[in-house]
Design a protein that fits this description.
207 residues; mainly beta; 26% strand
Length: 207
């Protein structure tokens, strides 16, 4: 079992509450393909259904750089643009929601000394985010995934992970959730994907 999968409940609860300093406080992509037979990601307006939470794992670091692209000079791997919206359970867009991403490189390695493939951004006035990055590689015990923390202003943090459709390692990964699969399609210069986050709060409770 990987270090990530074996971390204790106490570690999980602690990592889920560690926030970058910025926590104190684009355009969507038309994508069609998804994992065959995958249940749909919970949509806003379906009662209290919201994006499932998942472990932060052992590689989260606070105080990531503020940026919308994790691609730097020399970054190898398949480019992908991920875009979507952050909404409440009653479908209200969340402006200025903080969305913090971190992931492995195309060889499955995390940068634990620096900030490579780590970054946060804030949603625009319509609750939209857009991230340029690469498709992460596998590492022992895990399928391809991208970690995310999402937080509406002054509200609790949702920690989760995003997965890739059709990856054979999905079925072997005990943390994999089909509800968290990205919608992905191939483009001329890389891949495009979409995912909408639904936070477990309503606009009334945010007011």
């Amino acid at each position: 079992m990987s270090d990530e999968a074996s971390q204790t409940r106490r570690q999980f609860l602690r990592s889920a509450t560690v926030l970058p300093a910025a926590f104190a406080v684009g355009a969507s992509v038309d994508v069609q393909a998804q994992a065959p037979g995958a249940p749909p990601t919970p949509a806003c307006g379906e009662g209290d259904a919201h994006t499932p939470a998942q472990t932060a794992g052992p590689y989260f670091k606070p105080n990531s750089p503020r940026r919308t692209s994790l691609v730097e000079p020399g970054t190898s791997g398949t480019r992908i643009v991920i875009a979507g919206t952050v909404r409440t359970t009653d479908c209200t867009p969340v402006p200025r929601a903080l969305v913090d991403f971190w992931q492995a490189d195309d060889r499955g390695h995390y940068d634990n000394a620096g900030d490579r493939l780590r970054g946060h951004q804030f949603t625009d006035g319509e609750g939209r985010y857009r991230l340029e990055t690469i498709v992460p590689g596998h590492y022992p015990g895990r399928t391809r995934h991208i970690h995310v923390k999402v937080q509406a202003p002054s509200r609790p943090v949702l920690t989760t992970q995003l997965y890739f459709p059709g990856d054979p390692a999905n079925e072997r990964d005990g943390l994999f959730r089909p509800e968290l699969v990205l919608n992905v399609r191939e483009g001329r210069t890389g891949r495009a994907a979409s995912f909408d986050f639904v936070l477990p709060v309503s606009s009334a409770r945010r007011a």
